[in-house]
Amino acid sequence: MAIDLRSDTVTQPSPAMREAMAKAAVGDDVYGDDPTVNSLEERVAALFGQEAGLFCPTGSLANQLAIRTLVKPGEELIVETRSHIVRAELGAAATFSGITTRTWPAEDGLLRAEDPLAIAHESAGPYLVSTKAIAVENTHNFGGGTVQPISEIEKLASAAHARGIAMHLDGARIWNAHIASGVSFVDYGKHFDTISVCLSKGLGAPIGSVMLSTRERVNEARIWRKRYGAGMRQVGMIAAAGHYALDNNIARLADDHARAQKIAKAIAAIEPTLLNPDKVVTNIVGLELSRLGISATELSERCKAAGLWISALGPYYARLVTHLDFDDAQCDEAIEILKRSLVAK
Ligand SMILES: Cc1ncc(COP(=O)(O)O)c(C=O)c1O
């Protein structure tokens, strides 16, 4: 069987998770009748100190519903250049919500509060676009799974709020950030007006994200979720996987981080220009291949031929992501395949 490190979304629901799903109490969630969904929404909201939650099929939808409650058509959201919201949601903010975006670049995706604050323009009047919200991605996926410093989040949130600018957290992998930093979910959550979290990445649920905010914004987002065609019915079977993931799969993320670190160190020992292992702090290992002169596609094809799947995300940028279906023996095997593939002519 191939070792699949393309993403942490490739995991299979475990037998115990499937059993929890099969046993879930369900109801029609469009009527608000699904007890498992309701309890999941309340549970995740409480975890982050937010008032209410909305179960969504995807992280992209949770992000998009959240930001449209903060930013009106023709107004602006500021995000980091390589964040998922602008790079991988296919123009959804513009297409569905008439939101314009402006970006700031950050090395490794890492937040420095001064960067977004320098370009934000909260009351631009009739000439320029007014900034209504700033989004922060934590961990930062295309930045290499980096963890945003809580001190910079605090600085940014207090300055932005003082200027009437709202804060959104794309917390698809906030679980990994928490494990790596030790910062509690509430301490992350308190700085943000809206949050999206994913249960379907490192936590291993097959589907599911939750949008969090005030009750008022969540009620508004609930209407938009239905309008987009994502009002779901007996979806407690899926929400049960989310409960199971929260009960069982947070602490074990430390294993994913340790395996990513082991891979990073082994690769750096072969070719130090590919990455700095000190920057690999969660479950994502990004390889910058330009100085080695192998394209990401070439490397991924070599690896695939040897039984290891990785992602080619840019011409010279490849990514490996560790996850709960990847164990120590596979980690050793993956390292051997990478070693051979990197030196092959
Ligand atoms: C940082 C980040 N945000 C949001 C998403 C969107 O999640 P989904 O694929 O469920 O739409 C992803 C997906 O990989 C992500 O990495």
Bound molecules: pyridoxal-5'-phosphate
Alpha-carbon distance between the two ends:
25 Å
Spatial extent as radius of gyration: 20 Å
Beta-strand portion reads: 15-25%
Q: Round the mean pLDDT to the nearest integer and report it.
A: 97
| Largest sheet features | 7 strands, mixed
**What is the molecular shape?**
globular
Order of helices and strands: EHHEHEHHEHEHEHHEEHHHEHEEEH
If strands are numbered along the chain, what order do they take across the biggest sheet? 2-8-7-6-5-3-4
Helix content: 40-55%
Produce a short descriptive summary.
The protein is α/β, with parallel strands linked by helices and 345 residues long. The longest helix has 18 residues.
Q: Can you tell me about this structure?
A:
The structure is a single chain. The chain has 345 residues and is an alpha/beta fold. The chain has helices at residues 15-23, 35-47, 59-70, 84-87, 92-97, 114-119, 150-162, 174-181, 185-189, 215-227, 236-248, 253-270, 296-305, 328-343, and strands at residues 3-4, 52-56, 76-80, 100-104, 131-137, 166-171, 194-198, 209-213, 284-288, 308-309, 311-314, 317-321. β11 and β12 (317-321) form a beta hairpin. Pyridoxal-5'-phosphate (PLP) binds at residues 58-60, 63, 84, 137, 141, 170, 172, 198, 200, 209.
Per-chain topology:
Layout: E1 3-4, H1 15-23, H2 35-47, E2 52-56, H3 59-70, E3 76-80, H4 84-87, H5 92-97, E4 100-104, H6 114-119, E5 131-137, H7 150-162, E6 166-171, H8 174-181, H9 185-189, E7 194-198, E8 209-213, H10 215-227, H11 236-248, H12 253-270, E9 284-288, H13 296-305, E10 308-309, E11 311-314, E12 317-321, H14 328-343
Parallel strand pairs: 1-10, 3-4, 3-5, 5-6, 6-7
Antiparallel strand pairs: 2-8, 7-8, 9-12, 11-12
Helix pairs in contact: 1-11, 2-11, 3-10, 12-14
Bound molecules: pyridoxal-5'-phosphate (PLP).
